[in-house]
Amino acid sequence: MKTRTIPYTNYSEKNRLEMVDFYNEATEDYKFWSKDFNMHFGYFSWFKTNLFRRDTMLNEMNTQIMKRLQIKNTKNRLIDLGCGMGATMRYALNNFKNVIAYGVTLSDFQVKKGNELLKGKNGIIIKENYNNTFFQSNSFDSAIAIESFCHSGHNVNSLKEAHRILKPKGRLVIADAFLKKNHNNLCCGGKFAYQKLCEHWSLEKLETHHYIKDKLEELGFTNIKIEDISYRVAPSVLHVPFAISGFILKKIFRFKNLKRESLHNLKGSFYALLSGLHLKSFGYYIISASKQ
Questions:
Q1: pTM of the entire predicted model
Q2: Per-residue pLDDT, 8
């Protein structure tokens, strides 16, 4: 399977290379965040999740994503666009016996380790660029992107590719942080947190949720639903300082040095928390839509 490439600006290419390096080196650190390797924030739900048990919230986010895909009892081909270690894929395969799951990532480490975790399951992770995959048009019933499109700046090419590979009536669900206003209009504190977040997590930029809605409509998606779930996500975000402290102490007690990528990951997590405090500038959303 040959990976196709698309033109990048110098900045985009630099960011892409940094992002790949970041995930090749720092993915293993996420075991401290989630025993299931969920590389995203969580969703708090009364009577379903535990505020003090992070993985209950992280897996509830997976539940909420699956709920919005509206998976029926018939065969369903699912693609995770920016799948990380494949945690959401494994969740889907464990809960829906009719699902066949594919994941794409640019990280060799994630491909290797993710496929080891998928062994014996009806899923596979492939090294591919989610902006330009080798899959045929109209191939998938479901597509998800959980905190992944931000790495390419919520680029319209990501939405175009999702639209291309989805079958008619196929569902797309995006869960991510978005700006509530143009980055030029952020306050000084918000702008500082935004710049540092992008720098340490190798994010090209963030777009507004309004921009995503407009582009989805232009591409022909229908039944577009924008849900602000910031307050549902907040409890898991508040775990960040405790997770950071615990991770650093663990390294110190084991006399291990922190890798450069790990430091970037920890700093990025801190600025994610700081960004979350600017509720007028940042929000976390689930965006769902159907291809006509």
A1: 0.90
A2: 41
